[in-house]
Design a protein that fits this description.
Layout lengths: L11 H12 L3 H4 L1 H8 L2 H28 L6 H9 L1 H35 L6 H18 L1 H14 L1 H12 L19 H16 L15 H30 L2 H4 L5 H37 L1 H7 L7 H5 L9 H15 L4 H29 L14 H20 L1 H12 L1 H10 L6
Helix pairs in contact: 1-11, 3-4, 3-10, 4-10, 4-11, 4-17, 4-18, 5-6, 5-17, 6-7, 6-13, 6-16, 6-17, 6-19, 7-8, 7-13, 7-16, 8-13, 9-11, 9-13, 10-17, 10-18, 17-18, 17-19, 18-19
């Protein structure tokens, strides 16, 4: 019934821009530090960006089958609920509420504050207060209403393309004394497989957001034909942009230098454009990051509200409350903001992003597996779009997801452990609510 209410107005080009605009965020400006410190060489770092793109494309093509077959509000939570039951969907919603969205907001606020400190030449002492101020400001703006937050999102989406385009064009033609080398592929103190795995995990933060591209299936004129094309061309375009800007970085700064700076894009811009031009590019990056924080805030504060409608959270009646004038679920926003502020005090951008990627990719991988489960269990389910080259594409997505999860588990056990513990805290709450009969399986 919900699908029948949607107007089928989206064609291929609009879908293509939605795909690219959803995925391209702030990670491309800041993740080079983590990628090249993990891989140790330019070539292995670029390989991590390529593999991240391939896994993302396969994941997008796979998840889109579920999006087209189950075009319901809630997205991935509904796919998991239909496939595995309410417990799995609940744990996803819980993890998104206490880990995924707060960690994204915290990590991005930290990087925003780091950029501010870099722009004005202040010390690191301002990073935590500026990060908290940014997170609070964005949350308060969202409390005013979705229209204000949405308009701000549209402006910042356009602004984020400017520094990308300028760095790529001028970086690729930069005449400096940096020698760009593809060999050696790896070095002695960076074992190939574990280094590539850690670099891959770092790139996945920049590629994150792809899971949402299938949500437009119900509004497409011809999803069976246009959705896979939009995903393949859109995500391939994202991968090419990421490769080009990383090559531009490497033309200006060596991999070792990129690995040692928390603000690689700004440092590269300063070299290319000089002090004044570099600062202007940095301002563009700041606007982009601010917009990305807003995007995660807009989406995140609605997760606890949606869960509370089914009485899935403690104090669900409190989470259900909406602003009298704005109709915004502000109580969920307050909780997410408080968790974000606690995370901000860690001051560790890469640790937060690696933890959130580890947790969310557990659920992404379960989503890929769901395609096989539902094909066997419900062959009669209407599927306006089917993943091409089945079962090869879903298997690549599953293997890629499993590699990301297990590599993080073994190479970053503390990050993985914290993520698992925070997710597991939701289990006794679920069992208690179920015992009380608040919701049923």
């Amino acid at each position: 019934m919900e699908n029948q209410k949607l107007k089928k107005e989206i064609g291929f080009f609009t879908a293509l821009t939605i795909v690219m605009g959803t995925v391209i965020g702030s990670g491309v400006f800041f993740k080079p530090e983590a990628v090249y410190s993990a891989t140790g060489t330019a070539s292995l770092g670029l390989l991590a960006w390529i593999l991240g793109g391939v896994i993302t494309i396969c994941g997008g093509l796979t998840a889109a089958e579920l999006s087209a077959a189950i075009p319901q509000t809630g997205g991935m939570m509904m796919y998991l609920q239909k496939t595995y039951g309410k417990l799995t969907a609940y744990l996803l919603g819980w993890a998104q509420t206490v880990i995924y969205f707060p960690a994204n907001i915290a990590a991005l606020s930290i990087i925003f504050a780091t950029q501010v400190a870099n722009l004005f030449g202040t010390g690191d002492g301002i990073i935590v207060p500026v990060a908290i101020a940014a997170a609070v400001f964005i949350m308060l703006m969202n409390f005013i209403g979705a229209k204000v937050a949405g308009s701000f999102q549209a402006v910042t989406t356009i602004c984020k393309l400017v520094p990308l385009i300028l760095i790529i064009i001028f970086g690729l033609f930069h005449q400096g004394d940096v020698a760009f080398r593809l060999f050696p592929m790896s070095v002695a103190d960076h074992p190939f497989l574990t280094s590539l795995g850690s670099g891959l995990v770092a790139t996945m933060f920049a590629y994150d957001g792809w899971i949402h591209v299938g949500n437009i299936a119900g509004e497409m004129k011809n999803p069976k034909k246009d959705l896979p094309k939009a995903i393949v061309f859109g995500l391939t375009g994202v991968m090419l942009v990421y490769l080009l800007i990383n090559i531009a970085y490497l033309f200006v700064m060596p991999a070792a230098a990129l690995a040692s700076t928390a603000t690689p894009a700004s440092d590269v811009a300063n070299i290319i454009f000089g002090s004044i031009g570099g600062k202007l590019i940095t301002v563009g990056i700041l606007i982009s990051v601010f917009g990305t924080i807003n995007g995660y805030t807009m989406t995140g504060i609605r997760i606890p509200y949606a869960m509370s409608l089914d009485n899935q959270l403690p104090f669900s009646n409190w989470f259900k409350k909406l602003g009298a004038k704005s109709s915004v679920p502000y109580n969920g926003g307050i909780v997410i903001l408080l968790i974000s502020i606690i995370m901000i005090f860690t001051g560790k951008f890469n640790q937060l992003t690696d933890m959130l990627i580890f947790v969310i990719w557990i659920f992404y991988t379960l989503t890929f597996i769901a395609v096989f489960v539902l094909r066997k269990r419900e062959p009669e389910l209407a599927r306006p779009y089917k993943v091409p080259l089945y079962p090869v594409i879903p298997i690549i997505a599953i293997l890629g997801g499993a590699f990301i999860v297990f590599n993080t588990l073994f190479t970053q056990p503390m990050n993985a452990g914290i993520g698992l513990v925070l997710t597991a805290i939701g289990l006794p709450i679920y069992l208690y609510k179920k015992k009380k009969g608040h919701f049923s399986e």
